[in-house]
């Protein structure tokens, strides 16, 4: 078997490493990532590796997805792709700076190529670098810079000029190759660029940075397996924030006005026109948009009211994947991850560390030997099930204890949302008071706690997936949490009768869960009493730095500092938050997400942000990366701020979320040929809300048309990939 993991590269730059799945040839990762890419990226490569503790990890195979392939699947690609063999001659990266000219007159013409420098070349030597030189081929002749091998550098500077007599007719191609020189063994190929001489004759001269391409792919000699993946490229232009203000204000006004009789609500339009494929995406955009506007509680309350106005049964309430259900689920994931880790973390860690055998299904029980040396005996099936019940009941009891004690630790915004839901369902079903408890647990247990218990890696509770034994224990524990969340354990027992040994613990857990929900959704007065009982039970976050923050009167600008100008404020930076207040005991008025958003916007609009940098260090009298001797000179490599992981994406960027909602509404209202049925006569005027929506979308479409750059002219110098 193997211990496989994946590495994802964007244009040969490693961005992602998945968890290792141990001892299997059929691994499951189930990991999802969202990347912000530079507009000019070329390809995404996924390498499947075999982890080895004693030697270098082996490469099993790779899958390469080009930008053109993604353009052919605007709705995204989903399926199996065969792994191809990794050829060292194909593993190239970087760019080369060239100046190519045609000199002389008819009958005596020369082809001159100046090789200036290269950057970000592949590292082929054990010292983490290469010894690059260039080789040029034209019309059967070869020249190379063997006297100018740049030792131990991936950012070489050659500044060499090569000349060839131009053939008549000049139909040949110029090939510029980069190689890594080795004292022993064959030289390693680092990439090449191929030019058309005909295009060069028309241009006369061409200079610039050109991407290095690999040699032609070799056919795979044997089956290396397949990789199942889903990839979707969203290529959109995000306009300046002021362009989206009318759309944001319209949506906020709809939420503030609430549900009104006879009104065609825009939220209803979004709910009825979202398909199962895009509903999750629309829900996340709406939640983040209203979180940034401070209206997420009102937005969720409006969704609850609209959902409860439909014909529904109390026992199936919020069990479908409606916009209300998806929005509440997204809201919990965006705002409640620290709370989730606080509640589930200790129990999950205990399950991973103990690795106990837990199985209640008689059809899957494994009989094993027990006892000490010389006194071995075979356990009976009943003994295995009883021992498993004790282990599972211990885990469930510990988890329920953590949940019951966690009411004061639950974020106030989540408690307020559940309080609204509890009250709305109670008013809608006054004869079924049990329904309001089930409505809360359907989100908290079935859509939040239980999925995290089943796959803790996907909720950042663990760095790696569980092995087979631990995974089965987590699955049974997640089922138990679901049964407790259903508030009717007998119904779950009817489906899987082998869970009956756990029934007493489930009944006790249901009663405890009911008491917990009562405390969680208590009134504002109850909330104040609970907060007086104590803070979250976990240790306080470690303080990185704190002290006085003095904002100058004339320098305090922006919404964060306008009120603070000229005052002494106490700031505190911890591992979870950054904020300031009038005193050390005052509540922080700004959360970490708002600070990150402000910092990102400042950096993005700063014209003094570096465009290049030195990836090495200045040691002695030169840079270790490119061997330049000018310490203050321009960097030899580009900064890669355009490729970022989710960790540094703006968590509450209303501009991006507004653009995604505009793209969706544009298709809903006919921009993509989709018709909308309105609950009004065909000859009647449009409702005011819809007419305003059409006007706002029309203005945004005009802004996008004006923002589209003109098509660049076709290049005279044709670069070929062979």
TrEMBL record:
SUPFAM superfamilies in the record: C2 domain (Calcium/lipid-binding domain, CaLB), GTPase activation domain, GAP
GO biological process, one term: intracellular signal transduction
Domain annotation Ras-GAP: ranges: 278-486
Gene label: LOC117006216
A Pfam family matched in the record: RasGAP
Zinc-finger in keyword set: yes
Provenance organism: Catharus ustulatus
Entry's Gene Ontology molecular function annotations: GTPase activator activity; zinc ion binding
Endpoints of the signal sequence: none
InterPro entries, alphabetized: C2_dom (IPR000008), C2_domain_sf (IPR035892), PH-like_dom_sf (IPR011993), Ras_GTPase (IPR039360), RasGAP_CS (IPR023152), RasGAP_dom (IPR001936), Rho_GTPase_activation_prot (IPR008936), Znf_Btk_motif (IPR001562)
PROSITE patterns linked to this entry: C2 (PS50004), RAS_GTPASE_ACTIV_1 (PS00509), RAS_GTPASE_ACTIV_2 (PS50018), ZF_BTK (PS51113)
UniProt keyword terms in alphabetical order: GTPase activation, Metal-binding, Repeat, Zinc, Zinc-finger
Protein name, entry field: Ras GTPase-activating protein 4
UniProt xrefs under Gene3D superfamilies: C2 domain, GTPase Activation - p120gap, domain 1, Pleckstrin-homology domain (PH domain)/Phosphotyrosine-binding domain (PTB)
Highest taxon of source: Eukaryota
Record-annotated C2 domain positions: 1-81, 92-210
